[in-house]
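Hi P.,

Sorry for the delay on this. The queue was packed all week, but I finally got your sequence through. Input first:
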Amino acid sequence: MKSRNCLSGILMLAACLAQPGRAELFSLPTTHNDLVGEIRHVHARHEDTLIDIARHYSVGQDEIVMANPTVDRWLPGDGTEVLVPRQFILPDAPRNGIVVNIPEMRLFYYPAVGRDKPVSVITYPISIGRMDWRTPLGVTRVVQKVKDPTWTPPKSIKIEHARDGDILPDVVPAGPLNPLGRFALKLGVSGYLIHGTGIDKAYGIGMRVTHGCIRMYPEDIEKLYAQVGVGASVNLVNQPVKLGWQDDTLYIEVHQPLDEDVMTYPELLDSAMNLITRKTASRAVSIDGAALRMALEKPSGIPVAISRRPVQPTFNPPVAPTMPEPDVYRDQPPTGL
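Then the structure:
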């Protein structure tokens, strides 16, 4: 009876929360462009937490906290302006199927249109594996779709929970408290899934908290499950730094590297400069060194412009029969790094 009352309380709490779910379908950018979406600014209500706002706009917990470093995640305050990070540089990976950027904790899905190439992308926040339960990297596929899955906890997880006094059953039945949620996509990597979550853990999306699987908001996995077919490709990449063009402007988007891949600033700068070299191989650009340094030193997960228009040389006709020294344009390397 006690457990039934507890479950009823959780269900009532979930019903009282604002309706979530603002994942959007973006048209793919034109050739040689890489950005989708736009930054939004909203005002918190008295009852809002940053986590409420994050879920409403399909943003992860760490994403919205990193984008609003001076705002209290639990008590932002009535009327406080909150930046919603809904602009993204697409990962450097083929634009088809599912692409998951692990350090960004974000999934990108490129729905096919018949036999034609995808023309749009949908993106969702995810949770990933803790340092001791790493989410794998590489290319795999969806091998099975399961609705209302049961969960059979592996022995290692049962032991871990038992240390905290939480004795797991051999099988957790389908239901609102099942940690796999109502929908699951099994991957070709044994034991790994893209799945939802129980209603008691739904607000932990966008953090490094899983046992290696990819966890999504319940409303997001329901949409993805309906669109993705068995055989769809899944590309798991590790790109804490992304570069992308928007017309003639080069942007950088920086996320915290995984704990096991932590880098010093010189290492991060070297990695960024290598990416810039490759990204600008066929397009001349002048790099704003101060903007690049700020983006690397204070990762925000938001695309930041790091290029500037070259100053066009000017010519002033002489007013007297003298030989003035012409203005000379010098292509300066980035400074302040």
